[in-house]
Design goal:
The protein is built from ten helices and 17 strands. By secondary structure, it is an alpha+beta fold. The strands form four sheets. The protein has an eight-stranded mixed β-sheet. Strands 9-10-15-12-13 form a five-stranded mixed β-sheet. Strands 11-14 form a two-stranded antiparallel ribbon. Belongs to the DNA mismatch repair MutL/HexB family.
Amino acid sequence: MSKIQELSEMLANQIAAGEVVERPASVVKELVENAIDANSSQIDIYIEEAGLRKIQVIDNGDGIDNDDVLSAFKRHATSKIHSRDDLFRIRTLGFRGEALPSIASVSEMTLETSTGEGEGSFVRLAGGKVLEHKPNALRKGTKITVENLFYNTPARLKYVKSLQTELANVGDIINRLAMSHPQIAFRLVHDGNKMLSTTGNGDIKQAIAGIYGVGTAKKMLPIEQEDLDFKISGYVSLPELTRASRNYLSIIINGRYIRNYLLNKAIVEGYGSKLMVGRFPLAVIKIDMDPLLVDVNVHPTKQEVRLSKEQELMTLIASAIQEALSEQQLIPNAASNL
Ligand code: ADP
Ligand code: MG
């Protein structure tokens, strides 16, 4: 027998899961991103024991055709890109076709879905193996239930932190996704308790109120600025409202929440000397730009991106904030209307 052999699909999926599915929050992220890509206007997330026992995501989006439903669990199978050109103009959150097969390979999963036309489907899998596939009646949309995450990968299960930490991570991901998509109504319920809900009326400030509370939202100033390459909008906190970490800085590029050290720095720079050392503002900065200027295909979780014209963007962010803060000194009540 030859020494070098191709991995079985199942093993390859488990290996990919090591990158995409680090913890319960990564499952939540991938499932909710799929729901967003499916044009949902309402996404409900139910979790139990911080997601380790159960994660259920219910959306009212496009659904999956019965003929397509098993393909969704194949590796590198996606409806979102088809050609090399598409890869450079990505408008959806997903495109790698890895999440469903990866998550399915390390959990017990059921998927119920309907496009609203013809028969819907029900699929049940364990450890990536399809155990059942049958027709199913459901209103238009998709309901995915992930149970007993990492039941077959004990090493990964050990790596998971305390329930409290995992829950905080899930909350954090939903916060960012909800702020990135104020036109979608989100609801997060943990062990029967509602943790968050947003109205989905399209207003970022309302979404901030749903997430950080009305009092906080009232202390956020609108920003707006554009040049030939970038259009910036969003909200930043008054200098009096700060936190001890950068965790409350959210940068959203073309609808995708990303992490970027330099852009965080630009936000802080926009405040000049108005912040105390070691304190950081809250900010939700939405950047719209030509997808050609941003490479999202850097890391499997797609939270790190490579930006062309990064310096230009930094300057624009800092100046948008500077401007909003100096106007605020002239019109002190600009922030409070909600
Ligand atoms: P990707 O999102 O990168 O395409 P996934 O593995 O996350 O890959 O999903 C595979 C495919 O399954 C998607 O391309 C999409 O067609 C379909 N899909 C997954 N989740 C949903 C959903 N909630 N609603 C509609 N279609 C979905
Ligand atoms: Mg996806």
